[in-house]
Design brief:
It holds the Pfam family Rhodanese. The chain folds into 2 domains: 103 residues, Oxidized Rhodanese, domain 1, CATH 3.40.250.10; 57 residues. It is built from 9 helices and 7 strands, in the order βαβαββαβααβαβααα. The strands form 2 sheets. The chain has a 5-stranded parallel sheet. A two-stranded antiparallel sheet has the order 3-7.
Length: 176
């Protein structure tokens, strides 16, 4: 296991030409929206070490990327361990830096808002409605804002967001 090194998009592109494997650790819907050509989707949220090692079999080096570089940096030790003997790199700045460098990306067929932004929109709208209705109609509506706050607190502590699970089942978020 090697300590992951950060690389720029230009260096990552050179490593890819030399046979490195590019692994995208973002969620499946993020990957479907847009990704680097020939990258492999292995979401960190449900990392399958056996599948990752299968993808990396025979590769001397692997480059991990996420949207901005934060997730891959946070999980660098776990990713390096999962990569086994392959030299491990992290794409500095993630997909955003890759696009800023003018390098190619594959765009999905239909644009959508990622699930966490949808959660923020619904939660924010519900809190706002609870406060406005609590002020204008009846103080009991303040409980609505409190429940959303409690749900967000629970999601932050536990890593489980029930609202995200519900939103994933909505028709506009289903894969076709």
């Amino acid at each position: 296991m090697s300590t992951p090194q950060s690389v720029t998009p230009q260096i990552a592109q050179q490593l890819l030409k030399m046979g490195a494997v590019l692994v995208d650790i973002r969620l499946v819907d993020e990957y479907a929206r847009e990704h680097v050509p020939h990258s492999v989707s292995c979401p960190m949220a449900s990392l399958n070490v056996d599948r990752l090692r299968e993808v990396l079999s025979g590769a001397n080096s692997v480059i991990f990327l996420c949207l901005s570089g934060i997730r891959s940096s946070q999980h660098c030790a776990q990713l390096a361990e999962a990569a086994g003997t392959a030299q491990t790199y992290l794409l500095s700045g993630g997909l955003q830096a890759w696009k800023r460098a003018g390098l190619p990306v594959v765009k999905g067929k239909r644009p959508s808002i990622d699930i966490m932004r949808q959660v923020q929109i619904v939660a924010g709208g519900t809190v706002l409605a609870g406060v406005v209705l609590g002020q204008a109609m009846h103080p009991a509506f303040y409980w609505l804002a409190g429940l959303v706050g409690a749900g967000l607190l629970f999601a932050g502590i536990s890593g489980f967001c029930g609202l995200a699970r519900v939103l994933m089942r909505m028709p506009w978020n289903r894969r076709r």
